[in-house]
Amino acid sequence: xxxxxxxxxxxxxxxxxxxxxxxxxxxxxxxxxxxxxxxxxxxxxxxxxxxxxxxxxxxxxxxxxxxxxxxxxxxxxxxxxxxxxxxxxxxxxxxxxxxxxxxxxxxxxxxxxxxxxxxxxxxxxxxxxxxxxxxxxxxxxxxxxxxxxxxxxxxxxxxxxxxxxxxxxxxxxxxxxxxxxxxxxxxxxxxxxxxxxxxxxxxxxxxxxxxxxxxxxxxxxxxxxxxxxxxxxxxxxxxxxxxxxxxxxxxxxxxxxxxxxxxxxxxxxxxxxxxxxxxxxxxxxxxxxxxxxxxxxxxxxxxxxxxxxxxxxxxxxxxxxxxxxxxxxxxxxxxxxxxxxxxxxxxxxxxxxxxxxxxxxxxxxxxxxxxxxxxxxxxxxxxxxxxxxxxxxxxxxxxxxxxxxxxxxxxxxxxxxxxxxxxxxxxxxxxxxxxxxxxxxxxxxxxxxxxxxxxxxxxxxxxxxxxxxxxxxxxxxxxxxxxxxxxxxxxxxxxxxxxxxxxxxxxxxxxxxxxxxxxxxxxxxxxxxxxxxxxxxxxxxxxxxxxxxxxxxxxxxxxxxxxxxxxxxxxxxxxxxxxxxxxxxxxxxxxxxxxxxxxxxxxxxxxxxxxxxxxxxxxxxxxxxxxxxxxxxxxxxxxxxxxxxxxxxxxxxxxxxxxxxxxxxxxxxxxxxxxxxxxxxxxxxxxxxxxxxxxxxxxxxxxxxxxxxxxxxxxxxxxxxxxxxxxxxxxxxxxxxxxxxxxxxxxxxxxxxxxxxxxxxxxxxxxxxxxxxxxxxxxxxxxxxxxx
Amino acid sequence: xxxxxxxxxxxxxxxxxxxxxxxxxxxxxxxxxxxxxxxxxxxxxxxxxxxxxxxxxxxxxxxxxxxxxxxxxxxxxxxxxxxxxxxxxxxxxxxxxxxxxxxxxxxxxxxxxxxxxxxxxxxxxxxxxxxxxxxxxxxxxxxxxxxxxxxxxxxxxxxxxxxxxxxxxxxxxxxxxxxxxxxxxxxx
Lengths: 788, 188
Hints:
The complex is a heterodimer of chains A (788) and B (188).
Chain A: H1 8-21, H2 28-40, E1 51-56, E2 65-71, E3 74-80, H3 93-96, E4 112-115, E5 118-121, H4 124-142, E6 147-151, H5 157-170, E7 176-178, H6 185-195, H7 206-209, E8 212-216, H8 220-223, H9 225-237, E9 242-247, E10 259-262, H10 268-281, H11 287-293, E11 294-298, H12 303-306, E12 325-327, H13 329-335, H14 341-348, H15 352-363, E13 369-373, H16 375-378, H17 383-397, E14 406-409, H18 416-424, E15 429-430, E16 434-435, H19 439-449, H20 464-473, E17 478-482, H21 486-489, E18 505-510, H22 515-518, E19 522-525, E20 534-537, E21 542-546, H23 559-569, H24 584-592, H25 605-610, E22 614-615, E23 654-658, E24 674-679, H26 695-700, E25 706-708, H27 710-716, E26 723-727, E27 732-739, E28 749-753, E29 781-787
Parallel strand pairs in A: 6-7, 6-17, 8-9, 8-13, 9-10, 11-23, 13-14, 17-18, 18-19, 24-28, 25-27
Antiparallel strand pairs in A: 1-2, 2-3, 4-5, 4-19, 11-12, 15-16, 20-21, 21-22, 24-29, 25-28, 26-27, 26-29
Chain B: H1 2-17, H2 25-28, H3 42-47, E1 76-78, E2 82-84, H4 151-154
Antiparallel strand pairs in B: 1-2
């Protein structure tokens, strides 16, 4: 019998279980049906005896809650967490395919040291000793500016905090910067220059409370799909909801927009000023709000003085520093004279009527207006300015810190807010919005860390792009890279090509081999996502904790552990005084003490364990959905209105910045006639090292491609699928064309996603940077396009 | 009729596109090719999902963006391809939270793998749906979120034998069938 029907034992087992459960419901017909099921293979299924626990999704900054189903130390399923206030049970395709991310067959499982052209497996002790020795000797011979750690907005809070403490408190260096510099540094500087405190004031409930949504250069349908669907649900329930999509190409987001405004690259600065111009002209500003809550500021505006930071122009370092001077509403009126609808129409390529329509939305006090943005605004040579201008629109109309009325910056990475911004793993920062340049801030950190006064170095370190320039020059001699893939993601990548044996020592911690591990000297295998305990902070200031749920493969270890072990070997064990098997809570509570009582209060570790995350500031166990708002924020002492209590330098008011239009760093000309914009796609997470190893996601987007306008394609004789050669002043690349694909660029413009490590579009991109945040502009450079 | 015309147009485009070497022909239509056939088996169902609970990939090419023209509330028989089942989600007409189908459902453009993957996912388990006694209605053994339209899977031409409902005329399923949310029991 068994030989004839291999499924028979399962069948018997099934009846046994039915019996055991006391459930008797099967008729002869059921039994016949069952035979068919067995033949189909459906009965191979185990009972759902998985252990289901909460965790945040590993991918984007939305921070969806997932329930993770594990068995025998492995993740077998996820589902959207219906109890999570972020996503209420819904996920996107990356989230649904999340568990396979851990099980690519080429997971890194052991430390490996470069050995000629190959690699040799070494023990953790050997690896950690080697790193400690290399960093110690480099420090001794070349000082703290010669070592660097390049981290990530995908670091958990513990990893970032361990790195910060080791680099700034141990090695006395400030060469610590995350890939988040490439992603949301402009948003940080936007909030810092206006509120002297980072991160948005609103929360995701804005998506239900708003009536007019203005998306500034933001393909939300693909990059923040779950938030996009919350917005669409609002529109279903409230048909009066309007969505405006401002972009440089049509994307899946545009399909759902009530108004699509196609602007010329970089002209968003002019558009925002044009809207301000009309608001003032039509007197649609909130004077009493301005008098009570706003000061006016102006910075350096001279294009020649500011520059763009590209290689060769400002040479090796880009260190422009803005200088603020006082301004006024009257001066603003004069300043905006240049931005009449006709003039702005010329710069942006829009119709004047469209600009008027947008101004009407911001000016209408009867409707709630939410501005949303992400990389289009942040990866911009004047990204901080553009962040300022969007917030200006809300300050001048008083549409801020109220449900449905906010400037809401969306974050790219799962803990760009929680780790990069809040822990402060940037070259100039310390936890809770503090900076190394400020003596009081340094003293606070030294006190919490139990260090001697004067330990922390007051000179900021290299920001990300300059860090890699310094590595190329040889000024940085030892570098540790964790949770990121710079040899795919840096702009103007050709400048950073490296051959091992150049006298530098590069350690890379990751879960898979990447082009970055390919050029490393030492590779460390990391534990990923729920293979370790951790904390992420999402876009809406929600801190989310998860427990270790699965076993890492081989000898893989979590990133924070790797750093602490090296620190101990360098004689800096005093920085990490916790027991080896129980340190997560103690470390978090120490970190948390930085923000208590100053409006940056994180929830306790215990509260985080028990909830689906909490939105800071958390005071007396209560979260704050709307910062600076009376009735919501416990730090606001007023009975109504708003109070920007963190902006001590502006008299506890918010700063409105006058910011002009500047053209992009490189504009198409006769030699390089096309705009090139780069970005992400729904199915792939950043450089694809995790998502490409998931069959379904890879097969949906198997290679990078170039989106090209149909008119251009026809003129150049290019059909979808044809090979197209793109060439910029920095590099060239051949890749398949997509005509009328998911994105539709206008004539004279092409788009390429950056996830594909074998088709590196960053060989072509320009390393121009935002003048204040030093975030590179991946969205605008000039290329030639030809059929290959 | 208009829709049928549209579908045949899609087919013509599809045949034209089949000359593209990069895309294998059987990926284009992996639903049964026999006219009138429409049911998938449990194993085909499983093949289209990374694990039980993951959204199915499209078993056919991404025929443009307007999925609900075929996958409408009743489902639709598309000559030469098969039956396009109705979506089980509550509101799929745009705008709504579930109207952007591609947020979760993607189509394969290639059969290649980037790297091998050894993930073993949860399989569908049909040994659930407990009854309190032989006459009692079974509980709903799965998450109801995104499966609010019971009829989509349990009735109609696409319903698989093993989960087919014997009484589709009774429209309010939740009157008798409850979602099993927890294994814990009430204790006083």
